[in-house]
Write a structure and sequence with these properties.
- This protein is mostly helical.
- The longest helix has 21 residues.
- The protein contains six helices and three strands; from the N terminus they run E-E-H-H-E-H-H-H-H.
- 60% of the residues lie in helices and 11% in strands.
- A three-stranded antiparallel β-sheet has the order 1-3-2.
Length: 123
Amino acid sequence: MRADSGLNGRDGLQSHHIPSYTAVEKYLEDQGVELDSKQKRKLKKDLGAVLLSIENHKITRTYGSRAIKTRIADAKDLLAAVDADIENLVGDLGVSREQGEQLRGALKDHVKAVTAEWGAPCG
């Protein structure tokens, strides 16, 4: 598994954003940041992600329409959303605890930086 920021999946892999794009978008909206379509594409590209097989991506807690269901709660605390996503990877996808902890720290730092870039730092 490799952590990347906004990398498009290759060779049957997809980017699994942590926290989900919809949660970060909702967080910024709640903070009064209005994004146009170009800015939304930039945000999605800039978010931290891990590359997963399509099959594994489909079983994550925020895949597809599940991201819509979790976005409001996740938007209230993006760092807790990172925690939940990491626990999902460790518990359901066989990521080691050590790898999960490394990802947790890197992804929390990254989401703090991305939201600060938009003038609405989280955490």
